[in-house]
Amino acid sequence: MFRGTRGKLPPPIDDIDAFWSPREKMQASSMLACSVVGSPETVRRGLEELAERTGADEFIVAAAIWDHEARKRSYEIVAEVSGMRTAPKLAACG
Q: How many angstroms separate the CA atoms of 47 and 39, rounded?
Protein backbone atom coordinates (compact mmCIF):
# COMPACT_ATOMS: atom_id res chain seq x y z
CA MET A 1 0.00 0.00 0.00
CA PHE A 2 2.78 2.43 0.84
CA ARG A 3 4.19 2.06 -2.66
CA GLY A 4 0.86 2.69 -4.36
CA THR A 5 0.66 -0.79 -5.85
CA ARG A 6 -2.46 -2.81 -5.23
CA GLY A 7 -3.05 -6.47 -5.80
CA LYS A 8 -3.22 -9.78 -4.05
CA LEU A 9 -1.36 -10.14 -0.77
CA PRO A 10 2.11 -11.44 -1.65
CA PRO A 11 3.58 -14.46 0.13
CA PRO A 12 5.83 -13.90 3.15
CA ILE A 13 9.46 -13.05 2.47
CA ASP A 14 12.53 -14.22 4.39
CA ASP A 15 14.25 -10.86 4.91
CA ILE A 16 11.88 -7.91 5.30
CA ASP A 17 14.76 -5.55 6.07
CA ALA A 18 16.17 -6.14 2.58
CA PHE A 19 12.77 -5.29 1.10
CA TRP A 20 11.41 -2.19 2.83
CA SER A 21 12.75 1.32 3.17
CA PRO A 22 13.30 2.96 6.57
CA ARG A 23 10.16 5.04 5.99
CA GLU A 24 8.08 1.96 5.16
CA LYS A 25 9.43 0.24 8.28
CA MET A 26 8.41 3.24 10.40
CA GLN A 27 4.91 3.33 8.85
CA ALA A 28 4.38 -0.41 9.29
CA SER A 29 5.67 -0.34 12.86
CA SER A 30 3.27 2.46 13.68
CA MET A 31 0.35 0.53 12.18
CA LEU A 32 1.31 -2.63 14.06
CA ALA A 33 1.53 -0.85 17.43
CA CYS A 34 -2.04 -1.92 18.18
CA SER A 35 -1.68 -5.49 16.96
CA VAL A 36 -2.93 -8.37 19.05
CA VAL A 37 -1.36 -11.71 18.16
CA GLY A 38 -1.46 -15.10 19.83
CA SER A 39 -3.64 -17.75 21.38
CA PRO A 40 -7.32 -17.13 22.07
CA GLU A 41 -6.50 -16.18 25.67
CA THR A 42 -3.73 -13.81 24.57
CA VAL A 43 -6.07 -12.21 22.02
CA ARG A 44 -8.82 -11.80 24.62
CA ARG A 45 -6.44 -10.11 27.07
CA GLY A 46 -4.92 -7.99 24.31
CA LEU A 47 -8.29 -6.72 23.11
CA GLU A 48 -9.36 -5.95 26.68
CA GLU A 49 -6.13 -4.02 27.32
CA LEU A 50 -6.45 -2.16 24.02
CA ALA A 51 -10.04 -1.19 24.82
CA GLU A 52 -9.03 0.00 28.28
CA ARG A 53 -6.05 1.96 26.97
CA THR A 54 -7.94 3.64 24.13
CA GLY A 55 -11.48 3.86 25.49
CA ALA A 56 -12.73 2.21 22.29
CA ASP A 57 -16.04 0.40 22.44
CA GLU A 58 -15.60 -1.31 19.07
CA PHE A 59 -12.76 -2.39 16.80
CA ILE A 60 -12.22 -2.85 13.11
CA VAL A 61 -10.30 -6.09 12.71
CA ALA A 62 -7.97 -6.65 9.77
CA ALA A 63 -5.80 -9.68 9.23
CA ALA A 64 -3.37 -9.44 6.33
CA ILE A 65 -2.35 -13.08 6.54
CA TRP A 66 -1.20 -14.72 3.32
CA ASP A 67 -2.43 -18.22 4.25
CA HIS A 68 -6.19 -18.08 3.79
CA GLU A 69 -6.98 -20.81 6.34
CA ALA A 70 -4.82 -19.05 8.94
CA ARG A 71 -6.59 -15.77 8.15
CA LYS A 72 -10.00 -17.40 8.62
CA ARG A 73 -8.83 -18.93 11.91
CA SER A 74 -7.68 -15.52 13.15
CA TYR A 75 -11.17 -14.10 12.58
CA GLU A 76 -12.72 -17.11 14.29
CA ILE A 77 -10.52 -16.50 17.34
CA VAL A 78 -11.61 -12.86 17.48
CA ALA A 79 -15.26 -13.94 17.21
CA GLU A 80 -14.83 -16.52 19.97
CA VAL A 81 -13.14 -14.19 22.44
CA SER A 82 -15.32 -11.17 21.74
CA GLY A 83 -18.41 -12.70 23.27
CA MET A 84 -20.08 -14.39 20.33
CA ARG A 85 -21.49 -17.71 21.50
CA THR A 86 -20.10 -19.49 18.46
CA ALA A 87 -17.78 -18.20 15.81
CA PRO A 88 -19.39 -17.78 12.38
CA LYS A 89 -18.22 -20.13 9.67
CA LEU A 90 -16.16 -18.09 7.27
CA ALA A 91 -16.32 -18.75 3.56
CA ALA A 92 -13.79 -17.76 0.95
CA CYS A 93 -14.52 -14.43 -0.70
CA GLY A 94 -14.49 -14.20 -4.48
A: 12
